[in-house]
Specification:
By secondary structure, this protein is α/β, with parallel strands linked by helices. The protein has 21 helices and 25 strands. It has a six-stranded parallel beta sheet with strand order 3-2-1-11-12-7, sandwiched between helices. Strands 16, 17, 18, 19, 22 and 25 form a six-stranded antiparallel beta sheet that branches. Helix 11 packs across helix 12 and helix 15 packs antiparallel against helix 16. The protein is flat, with a radius of gyration of 29 Å. The structure holds ligand ME8. Ligand ME8 binds next to strand 1, helix 1, helix 7 and strand 11.
Amino acid sequence: MPQKEKFYLTTPIYYTNGLPHIGHTYTTVVADVIRRYKRMRGYDVVMTTGTDEHGVNVERAAKKAGIPESEYVAKMADAWRALWDELGIPADEFVRTTDLKHVRTVQWLFKLCKENGYVYKGHYTGQYCIYDNAFVNDTKPGDNCPDCGRPLETITEENFFFKLSSFQKPLLDFYKKNPDFIQPDTRRNEIISFVEGGLKDLSITRTTIRWGIPVPGEEPHVFYVWFDALTAYLSAVGGPDFEKRGMWPADLHLVGKDIIRFHTVYWPAFLMAAMLPVPKQVWAHGWFLMDAAKMSKSKGNVVLPRPIVNMLGMDALRYFLLRDVVFGQDGNFSYDALVTRYNSDLANGLGNLASRTAALIEKNFAGKIPKPAAFKPQDEVLGKEAQNAIGEVLENFDKLSFARALETIWTVIAAADKYLTSEQPWALGNSEADQSRKATVLWTTAELLRIVVALLFPVLPDSAAKVWTLLGQSDALGKFELDGLRWGQLAPGASLGKAQTLFPRVDKTEAIERIESMANEELNPTPATPAPAASAPAVSGTAAAAAAAPAVSDKIGIEDFTKVEMRVGQIKTAERIVGADKLLKLTVDIGTEIRQICAGIAQYYEPESLIGRKVAVVVNLAPRKLRGVESNGMIVAASVGPEGRPVLTGFHEEVEVGARLK
Ligand code: ME8
């Protein structure tokens, strides 16, 4: 058997000072799609992800948590790994920068660079962003970080420097010789002009940070975050023994555009200095934005993967991430677009075609794939369309043009829908001619579905495999070789598998409310309230949600109660929120300020009836977003009856706005 060609791809190794949001999920999902695709094209694939665990941020976070750094990062790495497992995208190699094999690789790489004359000791004074772990050029003392907006610190210290300046020409030559090294082209041009502008030597160690990999014999120097982090790609596949494993150099580093420079300038320069093979390609995708801003937990605008998966399934999230944004460009994340696509493309499109076809075969051919009779031109046209789609889709997957590939597949699905509607196999009778025609039409549709799901497996692994089994295919779809996929291979006589609902239609408003409510709970967990199950009613923004939860058995002390600051507020304005029929947007005077608060009372209170009304407000609740609208506080309401109708609190005497409830 000929040896398989290898393909090594990586995601960034993510920082451990937060948990994965949809941006990290995006990169990891894309890596998983490529991994599955390449395996179906006959490659021996390894995909690496991991955690970037050193630096001052970790020191601080561990201190805040009151635990040693090693314990803190171990917990965080477990949480990242567990989430990838839960989402069905575990890496083949999960590398942690605190792994011994990684520590050894970094020290070895440094030794090689030093022996080859590319490392020297010097002093550095500069403005340093402790949040981004980087010195920031072109800034002065007192400035804020241009990336994250937080204050910079002036730092002078003895450092080891890497002679990046020696690599201007080698890098430019390398980019020229390997025009596909940096993708997409716009990023390539940016990097080329950056390198043409001149490269300064790079400080690669610190003495001000304790939590890092020590430079052997040079303590207290520890490695600077990028020399440490980038090397993880190599540690994951053998480190100094990389030749034995045979995976290095990487075929593809997938990164967000924020870290392209580190991957396309520093990383190849480090490797060139050590005389090691340089990766073949770095692909920088765009950002998922929320309200036109990059997501970050401090801005409170992160989208979490788990609530979406609980509500719609992982395949739906994967499909949306790849279909809605052109790979390489920025895209705005919207729950509305997500659920709309789910209903139109997955529930009504693929899901409906599969269940219709299976039901007709079940009814007319006792659940066995029928044998087609003579083909009519319209059958052949459809067959050609599916056959042509194979080439087009593979070509687009090769270029990482996922949205294009999916568009092509959905054109074929739409053509099959139209075909069924015009051929109307359900209207044909039981004569021999009608039976033959029915058999031909249903075989044609089933064959098209087989091709569609074979192509879709990298993106929709669960549902594609379900349809594959439904069509009576016994081999594992993930092992199917796409190079052998052709129109006409569906063997008649195979028994259909068990019918399953693939993508049940959902009510958009309700689905979004549930996702948001689960996300709020995950971001601001209330220890007294269990995380809502997917089927729990969403009554966001009022205390009714908490009141509807099962009774809390443990009593709390007064010190816990006093943590909740409740005040008398007066409603100033109230309006409905377009697309959210349960929510009202209120502005409420709480004595010291006017707050915007969303409350899940729209089905029970007319907005106008609320103006001037005095209510109890929890004022020290962390702000959250409901249907994209900021809510800063919570209106207290009783939860009445089985459906939890919210009834607002009131006062029987005149009370001052802002008075505290005790
Ligand atoms: O930068 N949209 O880690 P990190 C799309 N540890 N992708 C996003 C995103 C968004 N809004 N937010 C994050 C680091 N990402 C370093 C990397 S590698 C040797 C060291 C994705 O936790 C995207 O892939 O900040 C981005 O490059 C990465 O997460 C940054 O992750």
